[in-house]
Amino acid sequence: MIPYSRQQITRQDIHAIAQVLRSKYLTTGPAVEAFETALCKLTGARYAIACSNGTTALHLACLAIGLGKGHIGITSPLTFLASANCIEYCGAKTAFVDIDLATLCLSPAKLDEYCKTRKVPKVVIPVDYAGIPADLPAIHALAKKYGFMVIEDAAHSIGSTYSYHGKTYQCGSCAHTDIATFSFHPVKNITTGEGGAVLTNNARLAAKLRLLRSHGMTKDPALLSRKDGPWYYEMVDLGFNYRITDIQCALGISQLKRLGKIKKQRQAIVREYNRIFTGIEGIVTPPWPKHASPCQHLYPIWFANGSRARMAAYNTLAENGIHAQVHYIPVYMQPYYVEKYGKQAGLCQNAERFYNACLSLPLYPELTKPQIKKIVELVVEVVV
Ligand SMILES: Cc1ncc(COP(=O)(O)O)c(C=O)c1O
């Protein structure tokens, strides 16, 4: 079976994990800090807080900025549930702004329109869909204009970069956002099994994120109301156990070391798909914006002839042991959101159009050229 994505585990990865298993700390030890340092080094962000998964990373991020009742949080409809659920966890209202078809990410123009005519959100959560960087500089400019905060959901985009005014930025750098989050689920560009991280350049937010990751508990003398003895700790906020283990972080460090190679492999596969699909009518390949160098997490094609062609391609691939996937059902169409906010069909027409006819083809480093050729042939069969 060829899945749409899968993890890559090397002997070095296994060795790194085994070393932790033989060491003193399985959790809250040196591998966690070393992973956080490596994430800062990669992205250029000043602080990284590793946590249990990408969903808890988003939850921590929303809590750290003080999102709560009476606030609005905006995200893209073309995303996994977690990008919106984190707003709901905090008791805020979730709103959606449509994607730009040129990037498949949240449209800054539509966000501007929203802010002009509606209550300004407390936070906007753009998603780097499929590894394509959202237009963060444009969203940053709007954040300054309207006064909202920005959390980049970079679950798909570790390793991706974008250029702005002649400078290159890593996704997750927080150069144009307040906070960024990663996911290290096995289907992502690098994995820790389950895992996530929150990044920021803001010392106050970083301190709050660390506190909330572990029960809101502290031994920091500056935060204690009194001190009974060296064992003494206080819970100064309502936090969670959203910690990650040293075992997972050792895997993360090992995987991060070859992110450059993984990116080259992923880009090569995307180029190969694009090359073979060139000139095939009825198939639109995913965007590769000029200003970006994406570390593609997904390869979502779009069938110009509509959902029937997509269904036929999905079935043909499945019959041949190839598991394609659809990313994503616009989040506001989920029963939970329909029940809470009412039917919003037609709210984000680009996202709906894309959802109705998109299909993510397999993309992971081990995928071979003959496999890519076969996948393309099967897809092309249904459109010609
Ligand atoms: C865009 C996006 N955000 C957040 C998440 C949540 O990450 P995790 O599965 O690590 O909780 C995912 C996971 O699939 C995702 O695709």
TrEMBL record:
<dbReference type="GO" id="GO:0000271">
    <property type="term" value="P:polysaccharide biosynthetic process"/>
</dbReference>
<feature type="modified residue" description="N6-(pyridoxal phosphate)lysine">
    <location>
        <position position="188"/>
    </location>
</feature>
<keyword id="KW-0663">Pyridoxal phosphate</keyword>
<dbReference type="InterPro" id="IPR015421">
    <property type="entry name" value="PyrdxlP-dep_Trfase_major"/>
</dbReference>
<dbReference type="InterPro" id="IPR020026">
    <property type="entry name" value="PseC"/>
</dbReference>
<dbReference type="GO" id="GO:0030170">
    <property type="term" value="F:pyridoxal phosphate binding"/>
</dbReference>
<feature type="active site" description="Proton acceptor">
    <location>
        <position position="188"/>
    </location>
</feature>
<dbReference type="InterPro" id="IPR015422">
    <property type="entry name" value="PyrdxlP-dep_Trfase_small"/>
</dbReference>
<comment type="similarity">
    <text>Belongs to the DegT/DnrJ/EryC1 family.</text>
</comment>
<dbReference type="Pfam" id="PF01041">
    <property type="entry name" value="DegT_DnrJ_EryC1"/>
</dbReference>
<dbReference type="GO" id="GO:0008483">
    <property type="term" value="F:transaminase activity"/>
</dbReference>
<dbReference type="InterPro" id="IPR015424">
    <property type="entry name" value="PyrdxlP-dep_Trfase"/>
</dbReference>
<protein>
    <submittedName>
        <fullName>UDP-4-amino-4, 6-dideoxy-N-acetyl-beta-L-altrosamine transaminase</fullName>
    </submittedName>
</protein>
<dbReference type="InterPro" id="IPR000653">
    <property type="entry name" value="DegT/StrS_aminotransferase"/>
</dbReference>
